[in-house]
C-alpha cells in the first residue's frame, strides 16, 4: 500500500473509534512520524493530505526542513537535549516532550515566539520511558508560569508496548484524568486541552480514551526498509 492508501485506512479506523464513543473525527489530528523514512516519503505524506509531521532527532528534522520548509506543521516528539534546543526551536510549532525545568528555561531563552508544548508523562512507570511521574505533573506545570514562550497545550505519553488492551486503556485514562484536572485550573499559559497519545499499534484505543493528536509512523509512512 502507498501512503495515500494507508492514510485512507487510518481515516476509516479513526472514524470507527470515534463512532464507538460518540466523538467527532474532526477533533483528531494525525501526526505522520517520519523519523524512519526519507524526505521523499515525507513529501508523499504531505501530498496525500498530511499537515503535521513529527521527528524525534534534530538531524532528521533539519534535513527534512531544508527541503520541505514551512509546508508542514512540525512537531518534535523525541527527547530533546538542552544544547540542541537552539537548532530546532524556531522551526517547530509543537514540542511533545517537555519534561524538565532546565529544558523549559532554554526554550524560553531561545525561542522567538510561543512554542506549544506537551508535558510528557511517564504513566506506565517503565524505567526506559521518559517523562514526569503523574504525581509531579501539577507542580511542574505551576513552575512553568514565568516562561513567556511556553504554552502548555496538553499532555503526552507513550503507552507500554503491549497488546494488553486493559493496560493500554488504563494508561490513557490516567493521562486524560490528569489533563482534565489541569484544564480545569483555567491557567492562561496552560490551557491543556489536548492529549497526544496513540501510535501505530494503539491509536484506536487512544482515540476512544480521548486522544486529540495521534503520532503514527509505521502504519502510515512505513519503515525505511519498505520504501522502494
Ligand atoms: C516513533 C514514535 C512514534 C511512532 O511510532 P509508530 O509505532 O511507528 O507509529 C510515536 N511517538 C513517538 C514519541 C515516537 O518516538
From TrEMBL:
Question: Which GO molecular function terms does the record list?
Answer: pyridoxal phosphate binding
Which positions, given as ranges, span the membrane? none
Please verify whether the record's keywords include rRNA-binding. no
> One of this protein's Pfam families, by short name?
Ala_racemase_N
Q: Which cofactor does it need?
A: pyridoxal 5'-phosphate
Spell out which residues are annotated as carrying N6-(pyridoxal phosphate)lysine: 35
- What superkingdom heads the lineage? Bacteria
Could you tell me which residue ranges the Alanine racemase N-terminal domain spans? 7-223
Q: Which of UniProt's keywords are assigned here? A: Pyridoxal phosphate
Magnesium listed as a keyword:
no
Cited NCBIfam families: YggS family pyridoxal phosphate-dependent enzyme
Briefly, what is this protein's role?
Answer: Pyridoxal 5'-phosphate (PLP)-binding protein, which is involved in PLP homeostasis.
Q: What family is reported? A: Belongs to the pyridoxal phosphate-binding protein YggS/PROSC family.
Name the record gives this protein: Pyridoxal phosphate homeostasis protein
Q: What are the top taxonomic ranks of the organism? A: Bacteria, Bacillati, Bacillota, Bacilli, Bacillales
Amino acid at each position: 500500500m502507498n501512503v495515500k492508501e494507508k492514510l485512507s485506512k487510518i481515516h476509516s479506523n479513526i472514524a470507527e473509534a470515534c463512532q464507538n464513543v460518540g466523538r467527532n473525527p474532526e477533533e483528531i489530528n494525525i501526526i505522520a512520524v517520519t523519523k524512519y523514512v526519507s524526505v521523499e516519503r515525507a513529501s508523499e505524506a504531505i501530498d496525500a493530505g498530511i499537515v503535521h509531521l513529527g521527528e524525534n532527532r534534530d538531524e532528521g528534522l533539519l534535513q527534512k526542513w531544508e527541503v520541505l520548509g514551512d509546508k508542514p506543521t512540525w512537531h518534535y516528539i523525541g527527547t530533546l537535549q538542552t544544547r540542541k534546543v537552539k537548532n530546532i526551536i524556531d522551526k517547530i510549532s509543537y514540542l511533545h516532550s517537555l519534561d524538565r525545568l532546565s529544558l523549559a528555561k532554554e526554550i524560553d531563552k531561545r525561542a522567538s515566539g510561543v512554542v506549544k508544548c506537551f508535558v510528557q508523562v511517564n504513566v506506565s512507570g517503565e524505567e526506559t520511558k521518559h517523562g514526569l511521574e503523574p504525581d509531579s505533573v501539577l507542580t511542574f506545570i505551576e513552575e512553568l508560569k514565568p516562561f513567556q514562550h511556553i504554552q502548555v497545550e496538553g499532555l503526552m505519553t507513550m503507552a507500554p508496548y503491549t497488546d494488553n488492551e486493559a493496560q493500554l486503556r488504563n494508561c490513557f485514562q490516567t493521562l486524560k484524568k490528569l489533563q482534565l484536572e489541569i484544564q480545569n485550573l483555567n491557567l492562561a499559559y496552560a490551557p491543556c486541552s489536548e492529549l497526544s497519545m496513540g501510535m501505530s499499534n494503539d491509536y484506536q484505543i487512544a482515540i476512544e480514551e480521548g486522544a486529540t493528536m495521534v503520532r503514527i509512523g509505521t502504519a502510515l509512512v512505513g519503515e525505511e526498509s519498505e520504501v522502494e
